[in-house]
Amino acid sequence: MASLINPVHSPTRTSQFSSLYLSSNKISPSFALLKVRSLSSRASSLAFSPLPEAVKPLPAVGFSGKGLKFSGWSQQLRRRVSVELLPVAKAAAADADGAEIEIADGYGKPTKSFSEKFPFLITGFFFFMWYLLNVIFNILNKKVYNYFPYPYFVSVIHLLVGVVYCLVSWSVGLPKRAPIDKEQLALLTPVAFCHALGHVMSNVSFAAVAVSFTHTIKALEPFFNASASQFVLGHHIPLSLWLSLAPVVIGVSMASLTELSFNWLGFGSAMISNIAFTYRSIYSKKAMTGMDSTNVYAYISIIALLVCIPPAILIEGPQLLQYGFKDAIAKVGLYKFVSDLFWIGMFYHLYNQLATNTLERVAPLTHAVGNVLKRVFVIGFSIVVFGNKISTQTGIGTAIAIAGVAIYSLIKANLEEQKRKAAAVSAS
């Protein structure tokens, strides 16, 4: 180190600058910014950092009886001091996750996030996206069938896109993949098989008849659920629930008798779909694996895809190779054909995932009402978009069926809420 140049002797009484960095006097600011740092020894601590961390260490400072000597004006002087912070009225800080912390009366408490301040807006957004994605999927799906009537292959595409989406999500850790063992696989396989059967039969119905008519028939699903609960699982179904299903059966019957697009393939496949989804719900109750819903749905999609591939190859494979793909590309072009298949698969997966996420945010009663309204939206939009003509009796029958489903859902949700409260009371 070069010799001292122009040494400067400071008086014993330091200036305001030196008192800030060299003395151990207490500092009592009315407003301070506190930075929370995570340390190995404890979760977080408060540190006051007046200068950047990148400052180089200081050379030794020599003390004489009279004053301080500096080696040069170009060097910055910094010394860490212990600062005792007095309680402040209010300070802003940032925690380890970047969230703002409000400190009042000397105690820190995290401020509420937007979702915590306005939960109804977040829930409303989930419902909106669930409806929107479902409507888009149904409309785009039907448009594809107008020039590519191969529901088994399209069902495979739906599941394939969803599986790829899940694999990509797992690879980036959103969410983290839950491990699965042989016992869990055995529990999820029947659920996935019923899911695959119900999904394929729904698409066969969509390809054969109008979207509105398929959804009208699928309004009978609560009837099959109640029947399976009563006669398969041995659960007692109250008389009020059975009575609420009467309008559903009557309404679907009225709509079917005068539906202009009616054919037995569309009607029968929709009924098989109802039965398959009913048994899916039964097996789902037995397949409580402890996983989160996102991982469960991902595994179900993977197994269902493996179930759907063989019948698609056997039933539609020869036709697709001979003229199916060729005709579709000739009608709309290769780019539109591929993009349509991709987007119907993406919308199918996303609307199912949003439905699950919405169910986790609301009470069963709210979700039941939302599910009924979703069906009304799909039926209404499909009629408007495709210009399907329906008879007056079909319209009345559809309205009666939807009203019956709404009444059934309300009664069932109320009964489940009463059981939950009774169980909570007995447990306490």
TrEMBL record:
It comes from the Eukaryota. It is found in: Plastid, Chloroplast membrane. GO terms for molecular function: organophosphate ester transmembrane transporter activity; phosphoglycerate transmembrane transporter activity. It is a multi-pass membrane protein. It holds the Pfam family TPT. Keywords: Chloroplast, Membrane, Plastid, Transit peptide, Transmembrane, Transmembrane helix, Transport. GO terms for cellular component: chloroplast membrane. Residues 123-409 form the Sugar phosphate transporter domain. InterPro entries: EmrE-like, Sugar_P_trans_dom, Tpt_PEP_transl, TPT_transporter. SUPFAM superfamilies: Multidrug resistance efflux transporter EmrE (SSF103481). The chain crosses the membrane at residues 118-140, 152-172, 239-258, 264-283, 295-314, 334-351, 372-388, 394-411. This is Triose phosphate/phosphate translocator. It comes from Pyrus ussuriensis x Pyrus communis. The lineage of its organism: Eukaryota, Viridiplantae, Streptophyta, Embryophyta, Tracheophyta.
